[in-house]
Design goal:
Elements (H helix, E strand, L loop, with lengths): L2 H16 L13 E4 L4 H14 L4 E4 L12 H20 L3 E12 L2 E11 L5 E11 L4 H5 L4 H9 L9 H6 L6 H12 L1 H4 L6
Parallel strand pairs: 1-2, 1-3
Antiparallel strand pairs: 3-4, 4-5
Helix pairs in contact: 2-7
Amino acid sequence: MDFRALQSELYRARLTAASGPYARPVTLPFTQAAIGSTNPAKVAAVREALVKLAPGCAVIAIDVPSGVGHQPFGDAATRAGALERARKALVATGAEIAFGLEGGVELDGPRVWLLSWVAAIDPAGREGYASGLRMLLPASLAAGLRAGDELGSLVDQLFGVKDSKSASGAIGLLTAGAVSRTDAFADLVAMSLAPWIHPDHYR
């Protein structure tokens, strides 16, 4: 059997599959979007996603409270914080769509998990959500989190840096830059827009 020919044929098959109907380009009609945060990494994530899905859309960054404290624990609180940020940003700016990006943690016995949520909402009340960025954090952070410290501050102490959450974040530091907080959040922002990309499927 000619394995090189087989590999080439399989590669061509994957390329053909990737060019199916789900790969068609989509342009959303938004001209103004808001984000309920002025954190540079989060703002950049929204811009990165909208460059692909709503080219030319202006992004307004506004600092609003999450309503869940500076360090949410668990999926429910983190998701609620993202939605609250999105709602408040929408009301404050009058944008066509608004996003809330919230990072949280989960304490699971000796393990500490990083988790994140993105919420999107428009003036008609349509909502979109996406979650991800779940990764194992160093167990040494657990004591500080239980004592009420914020993850960003603990990560700064661990790596001897300042304000990492506004740049690469825990993700970037723990992966030596292979994955940045901005890039990972940008995927979630794009995923949260699924109800606007395929509205017929989200009625």
